[in-house]
Amino acid sequence: MSSYIDLKYIMMLSPRLDKFKKVRDNLFNFRCPYCGDSQKSRSKARGYFYRKKNDFFFRCHNCAKGTTFGKVLEYVDAETYKQYAMERWRGDAPNTKEPEFNFTAPKFKKKDPKLESLTPINKLNTDHPARQFVESRQIPEEFYSDLYLCSKFFEWAKIGTLVPRRQDHPRLVIPFRDETGEVFAAQGRAFGKETPKYLTVKFQDKPKIFGLDRADLSRKIHVVEGPIDSLFVDNCLAMAGADFGSLPEDATIILDNEPRSKEIIRRMENLIKNNYELVIWPDSIPHKDINDMILAGMTSEDVQELIKQNTYNGLQATARLSAWKRI
After folding, report:
1. CA 287 to CA 107: how far, in whole Å?
2. Which DSSP letter does residue 58 get?
3. Is 0.90 topped by the overall pTM?
4. Is residue 297 exposed (0-12), middle (13-18) or buried (19+ Cβ within 10 Å)?
5. Which CATH number fits domain 120-202: 3.40.50.790, 3.40.50.150, 3.90.980.10, 3.40.50.10860?
6. pLDDT for 218-274, tens place per residue?
7. Angle subtended by helix axes 78-92 and 69-76, to nearest 10
8. How far apart are CA 42 and CA 40, in angstroms?
9. pLDDT tens profile 183-214
10. CA distances (Å), origin 304, targets 55, 247, 284, 290, 308
11. Closest by CA position to 1, among listed 136, 135, 92
């Protein structure tokens, strides 16, 4: 009930929040009402409402302000806050119980020594090529604080002896965090035509699963191949080469849209045999992966609806795969 009330008042407050938009279910973005985001750029919007369990919280990735939705409402509109507080009390306690506003503190990324020498993308100037690259991929800005620029990836990853020093180059570093927020692996994504495009290094002997720190395993889990794709899908993990057999049985698997790939088709056939739900993209979608769909003009909500409408299992999945594949 409390999350329903929070959502109701978020919508009521939205006209008062500059650049307000829904990013996806239970995540809203707008200009921070505390710091104003940026006086130089009116397009900056780094304040977020996000859901944690049954409540909504606020976080600004510019001034680092963090609090409950109720406190933001009280700050912006004290009169509406009084109605909100009363409705929360009535909704959470229909009898005569005293109102209790005990909120679970939101968890934010742990500082990790392995990342100290790297520069977070949100700390780069807007004209920096690395930041422009991330923006060009339309990655949601909420993730910029945990994406990093590494000027010499092979040296940083301690694999520099495998290549001549002159061939070392900058990469975008995407940390893999476990359920506690500890970094156990990282993927380096090339900015240009360097090969391989993606290179993942492990610091601990754990399966290369991205998104464990964000996923709610009590809800429906979606699983994609690449970390960047996972940033556009609700409650999503990325396997990055890990074994799909380690996933919950009710997970929905979303592989790339490559009907001519023998490897993709073999994996899809194995997933169907193991009773997983599987997304098989419609023939009308020409794009290879989710990020390409976003770049082509789709929203995260559009992609989510595509996933919902094109999920198959069992005999239905076998029949759809037979019609979809091109080999």
Report:
1. 35
2. E
3. no
4. exposed
5. 3.90.980.10
6. 888 999 999 999 999 999 999 987 677 667 778 999 999 999 999 999 999 999 999
7. 150
8. 7
9. 999 999 999 988 889 999 999 988 899 999 98
10. 23, 20, 16, 10, 6
11. 92
Please give the backbone phi and psi of residue 285, each rounded to the nearest 5 degrees, phi first: -95, 115
Q: Distance between CA atoms of 228 and 179, rounded to whole angstroms? A: 19
Query: Which residue from 54, 65, 4 is spatially nearest to 30, judged by alpha carbons?
Result: 65
Are 12 and 20 within 8 A, CB to CB?
A: no
Residue with tokens 């949601």: 140
Q: Which residue has the tokens 């476990």?
A: 178
Give the residues across from 253 on adjacent strands: 223, 278
Phi, psi for 261 (deg, rounded to 5): -90, 115
CA 231 from centroid of its chain's CA atoms? 3
- CATH code for the structural domain at 2-92: 3.90.580
% of residues, the chain, pLDDT over 90: 64
The tokens describing 161, both together, are 């002896």
Instruction: State how far the Cα of 14 lies from the Cα of 21, in Å rounded to an integer.
Output: 8
Nearest to 240 by CA among 223, 258, 227: 227
Q: How far apart are CA 147 and CA 132, in angstroms?
A: 13
- Select 222-324's CATH number: 3.40.1360, 3.30.565, 1.10.10, 3.30.300: 3.40.1360
C-alpha 246/C-alpha 225 separation (Å) is 14
